[in-house]
Specification:
By secondary structure, this protein is mainly α. The protein is built from 13 helices and no strands. The protein is globular.
Length: 318
């Protein structure tokens, strides 16, 4: 109990001057990181060199962003600073607008420190749904523009290329960005096991569905890539799935470990991070994060999966 009081004091920015400073720093860092992501995206878009750097930055920071919610109590408010890398957590209000009966429920005490209730987690899942709706609507708009555009013009050709990207790549990228959140939330609800209300029962059923999809979809995508490996060496043929194998050299099947490792690492990280804080094997969280990071560094150095030394060094530095 004494330890909890000390932790509570540590996170109390209203009475602790140092914590007030840390909270303000986290808020400013949040806006700074938002600016970094947006600026990098705009520069890469204008230069037309591909979005691998910004995707890489977001993907690796996602692995770190949830860690403060567990045992890293000595780094208060760090989660608030990292939220720009968590697609569904980018906008989280102080008040909850859905699942209001769960706004005082927390997965464990660390979530209470960050005011991250079950209702807010549900709200972040709703934001993923809203983002998916925005993508679908934009796809429909591009399709209508393509149909109405004058034939055999540069504008029609541009819309045709853009529409082809929507066919697979835009939806695949959206899924890859939301994959960690979806897997983590579903696993956490399954571990929670509280089905005392009808809403919680529905949430548990949905979690089992999402977790099953999180296993099936990566296996399905990797099966297609392996089956079409020879064909995907052709530039026009690989365009449909270039989000999954972005900038990866297609000269060796060993390089196909890259997208498979992306999903595998996030799936296991989500499962391990959903362990209750008082679990005897809680140390496995840190062991896996460290070992998987070191294994990936060795893989990058030995296989060099990307198309150029510059790209390999960039991903290695991340």
């Amino acid at each position: 109990m004494y330890v909890l009081k000390r932790i509570g004091l540590q996170f109390n920015f209203e009475t602790n001057e140092q914590m007030a400073y840390m909270r303000q720093l986290a808020i400013k860092t949040y806006w700074y990181l938002c600016g970094v992501v947006i600026l990098q995206f705009l520069i890469l878009f204008v230069r037309n060199v591909g979005f691998l750097p910004v995707w890489t930055l977001i993907e690796y920071m996602q692995l770190v962003s949830f860690i403060p919610l567990y045992n890293f109590r000595l780094i208060p408010y760090l989660y608030d600073a990292f939220k720009p890398f968590l697609v569904s957590h980018l906008v989280l209000t102080n008040e909850t607008f859905i699942l209001e009966d769960m706004q005082n429920d927390y997965f464990n005490e660390n979530y209470d420190f960050y005011w991250l209730s079950v209702a807010k987690l549900g709200q972040s899942l709703f934001l993923i749904f809203c983002l998916a709706c925005v993508v679908v609507i934009s796809n429909i708009v591009v399709f209508l523009l393509y149909v109405c555009a004058p034939k055999k013009t540069r504008f029609e050709k541009y819309l045709g290329e853009l529409l082809a990207q929507y066919k697979f790549n835009v939806y695949l990228r959206l899924y890859m960005l939301c994959y960690f959140d979806l897997t983590f939330f579903s696993t956490m609800k399954i571990v929670d096991g509280d089905d005392s209300t009808q809403a919680r029962k529905v949430a548990t059923m949905s979690s089992y569905v999402i977790f099953t999809i999180s296993i099936v979809v990566p296996v399905f995508l990797m099966s297609i890539i392996c089956k079409r490996f020879e064909v995907m060496k052709i530039k026009q043929a690989k365009a449909s799935f270039n989000t999954v194998v972005l900038k990866i050299d297609k000269q060796s099947r060993w390089r196909l470990i890259q997208p498979g490792y992306f999903f595998f690492r996030r799936l296991l990280t989500a499962v391990l991070l959903s362990m209750p804080i008082d679990n005897t094997f809680i140390f496995l969280q840190y062991v896996f994060v460290l070992m998987s990071s070191h294994a990936y560094v060795l893989y990058l150095v030995a296989i060099k999966p990307y198309q150029s030394p510059l790209l390999n060094n960039y991903v290695l530095s991340n």
